[in-house]
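Q: Mind making up any chain with C-alpha cells?
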Amino acid sequence: MQSINDAFEGLRSHIPTLPYEKRLSKVDTLRLAIGYINFLSELVQSDLPLRNSNSESSMQPKKVIICHRGTSK
C-alpha cells in the first residue's frame, strides 16, 4: 500500500496545480493526470504543422486553461 501512495505522490508532483490547493485525492489525481496527458498530446499534435510550415498565420499563440474541480467534503 505504501508503494501505491508513493506512486500517487510522484504523479501529483508532475500535475500542474495552484500552490494553495489542498492535496488532491487519488481520484482527482487520476482525472487531472488524464486531462493533462490529453492536453499535452493535443499540444504536440497541433505543433506538428508548425514545424512543417513556414506560414505566419499558423504560428498564433494559443491560450490554455487547465481547471480542477475539487471535491467538497
About this structure: The chain has a mean pLDDT of 78.
